Amino acid sequence: MDNASYITLTRQSGLLKEMQVVANNIANAATTGYRQEGVIFSEYVKRVDEGSSLSMGQGNVRETSFTQGALAQTGGSFDFAIEGDGFFLIETPAGERLTRAGAFSPNAEGDLVTMDGLRVLDPGGAPVFVPPGAGSISVSGDGTLSADGVLIGQLGVVTPTAPLDMVREDGVMFRADAGYEPSETARVLQGFVENSNVEAISQLARMIEVQRAYEMGQSFMDSEHERVRRAMEALTKTS
Description:
Elements (H helix, E strand, L loop, with lengths): L2 H25 L9 E13 L2 E13 L6 E3 L6 E4 L3 E6 L2 E5 L5 E2 L5 E2 L23 E3 L4 E4 L2 E5 L2 E4 L6 E3 L3 E3 L4 E3 L4 E4 L1 E3 L5 H39 L1
Antiparallel strand pairs: 1-2, 3-17, 4-16, 5-6, 5-12, 6-14, 7-8, 9-10, 10-11, 12-15, 13-14
Helix pairs in contact: 1-2
């Protein structure tokens, strides 16, 4: 395989990855707390001989957009949204994780849990407990929960130390290996959830662009394959 084919193949590989990311964004356009992803392309340049080099591109890094999504009012007592920077602290079998998806509810034991049954944690890492038969639930801007005016706990709202280094897990969950700290600026709203921040129209447009670029690259590879085939046939006939 010659250099032109190698370059085109790496381009096709990157476009395929981007197509998968864009398709996933579109599929999650209605997922509460979902964060849109993009692909960053990097270039590798290698010196071939004196005065010439070979350049190849690869889409190997996923970038997450942390732009605030639109807030949708639900009126639910245990539906919460974060206005500004910050994430809810969640307990998972693999450790503590961060999420913007705030559709919670008490389980049979009284622990506040996510839609997947994962326990919501307070700023100290302890499960948030809602006493059985608790009256009217209200929340203050810092996440403090009250039942009929009596303090019952606080939602853990944190800010990652290195947000760009977070690793996405399970769609709306993030792992923050660099750690996190209590958020000083985030404001918790009750009776709201944050919609996905996916820009559906722009993602559909990008999908069409990527598809056309991929088809163009495939057409080039088919033409290159045919050129090589004819060259080999010509060499065979003359030998």
